[in-house]
Amino acid sequence: MHKPFQAAPDIHVLPSFLPMPGAGFLPINAFLILAREPVLVDTGIGVESEEFLRSLESIIDPKDIKWVWLTHDDSDHTGSLRAILELAPQARLATHAIAALRESLVGPLPLERVHALTLGESLDVGDRLLRVIRPPLFDNPMSLGFYDEKSGALLSVDSFGGLVPSPAEEAGEYEEKGLVSGMTAWATLDSPWAHLVEKGKFQDALNQVRRLDPKLILSAHLPPAKGMTEQLLKVLASVPDAEPFMPPNQEAFSFMLAEMAKAQG
Ligand SMILES: [Fe+2]
Ligand SMILES: [Fe+2]
């Protein structure tokens, strides 16, 4: 894991950068929103759980967390979920009801602490409303993000993610060409259905983001993007026409494993 940093005065990022042999890094972010009722968004990856908890404790006493917003029940988001629910006994788990039920198949989950989120609603966290949104691209139908009316940040779940050449604290640090190709690669990998959609309908989904006009996009898989909404929407608009992602075959996978072993020394 990398050191936590602030994306805004009341928004901390808990970042990780997963090496992707031959393709740079995949950022994996959790966020801590210091609302009057503090909100932890996602819980990192399980293999880094100890480090994740230490990073979190460097910012907040976990027992002060009032909400754990689980964007969806993918393993790159649920790593320390149970540990945090134990460390934060007051916290409620805000998530898609079916994501909670499915996650309860992985291991015990206190379903009585779930606050089921749905579209058209907002979560009141004391000093602000978090308006529930469905991100324009997603790899899991349970994906729910939010628009933070106080900070102007959009929590976009897996959408607006990208493979990046190096760790960074702002998406604006990357040169445009690399950012576009990394975001396109990620989008075609994560949302292969984007090639099947009616483009007008997909554009409507992008326009919903455009109308919110977020100042800051917080993707689980890209460093925070400040003042880049229009630029990033243009990248997503091109995804349906991009070349579809092909899963690595056995030869390519063996190469990836060898590269990973080399990187780990
Ligand atoms: Fe996902
Ligand atoms: Fe993800």
- Bound molecule types: fe (ii) ion
The count of β-strands is: 13
Q: Which ranges are low-confidence, i.e. pLDDT below 50, for 5 or more consecutive residues?
A: none
Order of helices and strands: EEEEHEHEHEEEEEHHEEHH
CATH topology: Metallo-beta-lactamase, Chain A
CATH superfamily: Ribonuclease Z/Hydroxyacylglutathione hydrolase-like
Q: Note the gap between the termini.
A: 18 Å
The CATH class turns out to be: Alpha Beta
C-alpha geometry: globular
In helices, the fraction of residues equals: 25-40%
Please state the average pLDDT score: 97
Strand order across the largest sheet = 1-2-3-4-5-6-7
Main sheet properties:
7 strands, mixed
Oligomer: single chain
Q: How many helices does DSSP assign?
A: 7
Number of domains: 1
Structural class: alpha/beta
Description:
By secondary structure, the protein is of the alpha/beta class. The protein has a single domain, classed as 4-Layer Sandwich (Metallo-beta-lactamase, Chain A). Helix content is 28%, strand content 22%. The protein has 7 helices and 13 strands. The chain has helices spanning 49-57, 81-87, 97-103, 176-190, 199-212, 229-237, 250-263; strands spanning 5-8, 11-20, 24-33, 39-41, 67-69, 92-95, 114-116, 122-124, 129-133, 145-148, 153-155, 216-218, 225-226. The relative contact order is 0.15. The site of one fe (ii) ion has 6 residues, from loops.
